[in-house]
Amino acid sequence: MNDSIRGLTMNLSHLGQTALVQILLIVVTVWLLISLIQRLVPALASRLSGRHRLHALALVPVLRLLAIAAAFLLILQRIVEPTFENLVGILGALGLALGFAAKDYASSLIAGIVALYELPYRPGDWIEVDGIYGEVRTIGMRTVEIVTPEDTVAHIPHLKLWNQAILNANDGSQYLQCEADFYLHPHHDAAQVHRILHDVALTSPLLQIDRSINVIVREKPFGTHYRINAYPLDPRQQFAFVTDLTVRGKAALRDAGMALASVPAIAEQSP
Amino acid sequence: MPEAQIERIVPTPDWQPAVAALDDTLTEWLDTEHLSNPSHACVFVIAPPHGGHGDILTAWARHHDWRIVNPPKLEQILTQDLAWLEEQVRHPFPWVLPNLERCYLRHASGLELVRHLLDRSHTGSLGRGIIGCDSWAWAFLRKAWNSPEPPALAAQGFDQQCLARWFQDSIAGSEMDRLVFRQADSGAYVLPPPADMIEDKSIKTSEFLPILAAHVRGIPGIAHAIWRASLRTTPDETLSDTAANEDSANQCSTVWVTPWHQIRQPTPTSALLREQATLLHTLLLHAGLTRATLAPLLPLALSSAEAALACLEDAELVIRHEDEWRISPMGYPIVRRFLRDDGYLIDGF
């Protein structure tokens, strides 16, 4: 190990001006290439629709990782002679430095690479991490950037991947299940309400009709709970879809003479 | 080209050959007095938009003196008024319902009546009948009505030979049968010229009709609209001198056809299509709707629906026919392609 590091030091001391210029050029070129990929591919994806958009967006982190890996190899060739000893030496030194100085940062970087392999989230996915829900906009080296329904951008470090549950609502597809809830007074014809709510979902202009529609009925102490499970055409329409189901569902139930459950509000008493 | 001249060369479609073809197809069914399967008492005829199924079935019913069933009123659909259906059952005669797409609404209260109608037709309790339906409405109703696939007929799509024969037949026997149709930029023949007119057997033929047939997916009504829009009286400047000489030599007159890439077609932005996709889809599912009917079917206020329709009319994607808004024939291929790519339910044609 000592010999490797001594050899590596000698190689580095012989690093000429030409090599430095070449390294600089590689860094700048790769940086430009990555910037271009990060702008061009999402712009192209925004012109596409449905699954084509998601596939295009998923290319961004993969292309960026390939560009960085290529740059790393090209630079390594210019710094040291790529022998086994030299590689062990340089990677060992790099590992020690990262391990002590920037453990969390390095952990996030490694988790970022794992994320590209395991795909717990992709651009266009709707995920929930640590109670934050939103659409994945970009996957960076260290963080994943999501946009919440309130239009707030949240940067979540990849290292959450190690010990936290990542909830992915559509998992790379365009199918994202939505729920619309209704609470009715218990005295009614449940079969009729079931039919009405099924048709409410079936006739939604935002429905992904190729997926199943389920109406789940549960009896609660205060009334009957109905839940429509259905899929919107596009995950980005989920809130408009739930709103449409709720508005039209309430109207249809009212037209059928159904009474909604009402629970009197009870003020919370302090102990 | 002036509208009157276009009307003479490409008159409004005459569906009589289609009526005869339907008659031939139904011969066996008509000749069978006792059907072994009651679900075969009704036959469905499905056609894409601008396929003319309503006109064809109406003409067929008049020819055979079958009762034509008018669709229920809007209020009857929404109130699920079964009296309309009972009225149909009271008559013992065979019947034709030319437009099933007028019997439902994509609304929570707009499906019960059509389900009753389809259930009863399936059990044979409505007697013998023929139901015509638009292909988009049929695609939706197959999702809304859970039953085995009933017997259904569809006309074959028009390929380039069918289109050529159809366009030529419309001028045959008239004073215009000395017309030839040539492409305005190359002079290539779009429709084959009569054999006695051209001595040269190695004439150049145009690729216009194969492209047209593929673009319109074989739908005659849409091909008809584009064909009308493509005709003109003069060729490109490069051809004008030679064309006059050829016409006098062949004792014919030429109708010039705009090259495919020069035909003015709707070019909506993808943003407009995306914003108004639900509206366009709703119009297709109902084969056209009035302004007032459209608003309750969409998560839109009436004023927003009006504004959207105005934008789509400017983009030549929708047209107003009497009181009703429909997808324009020229806009249909573009709208269908967009809705398919965006994951909407589309027809099978």
Brief account:
The complex is a heterodimer of chains A (271) and B (349). Chain A has 271 residues and is α+β, with helices and mostly antiparallel strands. Chain A has helices at residues 2-13, 17-47, 50-79, 84-101, 103-118, 160-163, 190-202, 238-255; strands at 126-129, 132-139, 143-147, 153-157, 166-168, 178-184, 214-220, 223-230.
Secondary structure: elements and pairs:
The complex is a heterodimer of chains A (271) and B (349).
Chain A: H1 2-13, H2 17-47, H3 50-79, H4 84-101, H5 103-118, E1 126-129, E2 132-139, E3 143-147, E4 153-157, H6 160-163, E5 166-168, E6 178-184, H7 190-202, E7 214-220, E8 223-230, H8 238-255
Helix pairs in contact in A: 1-4, 2-3, 7-8
Chain B: H1 3-9, H2 16-31, E1 42-47, H3 53-64, E2 67-68, H4 74-78, H5 83-90, E3 95-97, H6 112-123, E4 129-134, H7 135-144, E5 152-154, H8 160-169, E6 179-183, H9 208-215, H10 220-230, E7 231-232, H11 240-250, E8 253-257, H12 270-275, H13 277-285, E9 289-290, H14 291-294, H15 302-314, E10 318-321, E11 324-327, H16 332-341
Parallel strand pairs in B: 1-4, 1-5, 2-3, 3-4, 6-8
Antiparallel strand pairs in B: 7-8, 9-11, 10-11
Explained architecture:
The complex is a heterodimer of chains A (271) and B (349). Chain A has 271 residues and is of the alpha+beta class. Helix content of chain A is 52%, strand content 17%. Chain A is built from eight helices and eight strands, in the order H-H-H-H-H-E-E-E-E-H-E-E-H-E-E-H. In chain A, the strands form two sheets. In chain A, strands 4-3-2-1-5 form a five-stranded antiparallel sheet. In chain A, strand 3 and strand 4 form a beta hairpin. Chain A starts with a helix and ends in a 16-residue tail after the last helix. The mean pLDDT of chain A is 84. By secondary structure, chain B is of the alpha/beta class. In chain B, 44% of the residues lie in helices and 12% in strands. In chain B, the strands form three sheets. Chain B has a five-stranded parallel sheet with strand order 2-3-4-1-5. A three-stranded mixed sheet of chain B has the order 6-8-7. In chain B, strands 9-11-10 form a three-stranded antiparallel sheet. In chain B, helix 6 links the parallel strand 3 and strand 4. The longest helix of chain B is centred in the first third of the chain and has 16 residues. The chains are: A alpha+beta (271), B alpha/beta (349). Chains A and B meet through helix 3, helix 7 and helix 8 of A and helix 7 and helix 13 of B.
